[in-house]
Amino acid sequence: MRLETLMLIDGKGLSKQMDAAIIEKVNTLKTAGIEPKLAVILVGHDPASQIYVRNKHRKAKLVGITSIDKRMPETTTQDELLAVIHEYNRDASIHGILVQLPLPQQIDESAIIQAILPSKDVDGFSPVNLGRLFEDSAEAYPVPCTPRGIMTMLDTYHVPLEGAHAVMVGSSNIVGRPLGAMLLNRNATVSYTHKFTQDLSGITRTADILVVATGVAHLIKGQDIKPGATVIDVGMDRDENGKLVGDVDFDEAVQVAGKITPVPGGVGPMTITTLMQQTLELAEGKFSKTRERQHV
């Protein structure tokens, strides 16, 4: 039977609230003569990437952030892409640089990510900024947007983190690993799982906070979830009927979970809003300041 206390974590609604706050701050910056600007580079014609980039530009327009739409052909060389990045690095009017992944085969993604100045790394993928995250640096720095968006949801919905057992199903550099570090920095106990993990269900059933980011539709069933757990579904998959679904079997999970993100309308909207939030913060110079450590 479904728990009476079940709460849906409304990422779409929360993102709209954040958009309103971002618009206000952007207008304040513009009054002071600062125009937040984001450069988005797309190489090639990957259909999914084109949709993601279009949505980013649409959101930027909504909140008043100027966005540069740089399109480059599939045949672009690594040196040609690096030249554009170096140009944007030198341009003081550009506050954030984003290169849409994946890139064509002839380009080394790692070299491209490393070429972006850490001070303009709006995606939070720079080894410098990831290093700051994993050492829990006292500096302020941009972090990967999906994990930060998830942390915002957990805080907004008052999910206890200190002492909680958080399980990452999927250990990518985009979601699982950085989110695990953020939770560890907030004094959660973190377990990472992946495709080689034995007895996955046995581990997920111990999670107070279960985050699933695998790209495998309905991988996690109701029996894999601890009663009352908070379930964060990062997946964006298509089922056999073409319906958009998550990595968690939602119909089963809602019978067990205490809080859960829907798909769509959960993590996705928060990712793109967090991207705008970090662009704004880069323009504000926030990341030149220090923050208080939370890990003890």
Characterization of this structure:
By secondary structure, the protein is of the alpha/beta class. Helices cover 39% and strands 15% of the residues. It has 10 helices and 11 strands. It has helices spanning 11-31, 47-63, 78-90, 109-115, 127-134, 145-156, 176-185, 200-204, 250-253, 267-284, and strands at 7-8, 37-43, 66-72, 96-99, 165-169, 189-193, 209-212, 230-233, 237-238, 244-245, 259-260. The chain has a 6-stranded parallel sheet with strand order 1-11-8-7-5-6. The protein has a 3-stranded parallel sheet with strand order 3-2-4, sandwiched between helices. Strands 9-10 form a two-stranded antiparallel sheet. Strand 9 and strand 10 form a beta hairpin. Helix 2 (47-63) packs across helix 10 (267-284) and helix 6 crosses helix 7 (176-185). The longest helix has 21 residues, at 11-31. It is globular. The protein starts with 6 loop residues before the first strand and ends in a 12-residue tail after the last helix.
Topology:
Layout: E1 7-8, H1 11-31, E2 37-43, H2 47-63, E3 66-72, H3 78-90, E4 96-99, H4 109-115, H5 127-134, H6 145-156, E5 165-169, H7 176-185, E6 189-193, H8 200-204, E7 209-212, E8 230-233, E9 237-238, E10 244-245, H9 250-253, E11 259-260, H10 267-284
Parallel strand pairs: 1-11, 2-3, 2-4, 5-6, 5-7, 7-8, 8-11
Antiparallel strand pairs: 9-10
What labels would you give this structure?
11 strands, single chain, 296 residues, three-stranded parallel sheet, six-stranded parallel sheet, alpha/beta, disordered C terminus
